[in-house]
Amino acid sequence: MTQPRLAQQTATGRMYARSEGGDLEVPSITTVIGCEANDLGGWYAYTAAQALATDPQLPDALRDTRRRRSLVNHAAKAAERHRDHAAQRGDRVHDYCEQLALRAMGRDHEVDRARDTLAEHHETRFADSADQWWQLFRPEPLAAEITVWNSTVGYAGTLDLVARIGGKVCLIDYKTRGTDRAGRVKAPDPKVVTQLVAGLKAEESLVDATAGEWEPWRYRDAEVLMAVAIGETEALTVQAAPEHLPVHWYKFCALAKVWARNSQLATAGAQLRSIAPPPLDSSPTGRVAGGTQVVTAETVAGPAVD
Description:
By secondary structure, the protein is of the alpha+beta class. Helix content is 40%, strand content 21%. A seven-stranded mixed β-sheet has the order 8-7-4-5-6-9-10, with helices on both faces. The protein has a three-stranded antiparallel β-sheet with strand order 1-2-3. It comes from Kocuria marina subsp. indica.
C-alpha cells in the first residue's frame, strides 16, 4: 500500500483524516520532518549539468539557439525526474515487502504480482535483496503498513512493519537505496531515526479505516527501531542508537511546531504590505490629521512578544 487510505496530498504536505472521507486533521510524519532545511543545491546543479552533457542532441543544438534553450530547460528538470523515478521505484519495493509480510502472516497477498511489477521495470534485484533479508533475519510480522496517530503533538503516519526478531519487538522502516562504487548498498539517512521515534511515540493505531475505529498503540514499548536499506546488491540493516532517541523526539516535536506555524502562514493572506514615508510634520504619536498612520519606531518594531 503505497498510499495510506486515510492520507491525502495537500498544498501543505500529506495530511491524515481519522476515517475515510473525513476531514484532514494532522500532517504525516514525513511531512513534519520535511520542514527541516535540506540543501540539495549542489546535487540539483550536478544532475542538470550531467543531463545536458550526456544529451545526444547537444552537438547539433549548439548551432541552434532555440534547440539549445530547449535542452537547457529539459536538463534543469533532471533532478526532479530522478526524484520522481526513485519515489516510484521505492513504492514498488515497499509494495513487494508488504506482500512478503502479508504472506508470512497467513493473509491474502500478491507476492507474485508485486515481483512481476518489479521485473517489468528491471528491478528484480531489489526483490532478491528483500528476500535475502527475510531469510537472514526471520522476522515474525505483527503488523504491516499500520497507520498510527498522535493527538498530543498532532501527526499521523504509516509504519512499514512491526515484527518480532530474535524475541524482541521491532519497528522497521524500509529504505530503497542505491549502491556505491564498491557495489555496497548506501546506508539510510540518519533522519530515519526521527521518523522511527515518531512512530514509536504514537498513541493510537488504526483498526478500521472505513468506520474510523482506532485502538491504543500496542507497540510503544518496542525494543528496537530498525531501518533496512534495500539495494540491488544487498540489504543493509541498521538500528537506531537508543541513547539518541530522546533528542530525535524533541527535534520532531519542534519541527511539528514549525509545520503548524507554516500552515497558519500559508492561509493568512499577504505577508507584506507597502507603507508610505512619514510626512514632514508627523507627530510623536505616529498620527497626523485624519488618523493616518506613519512610520515610527513602534510601528516598525511592533508590540513586544513574550
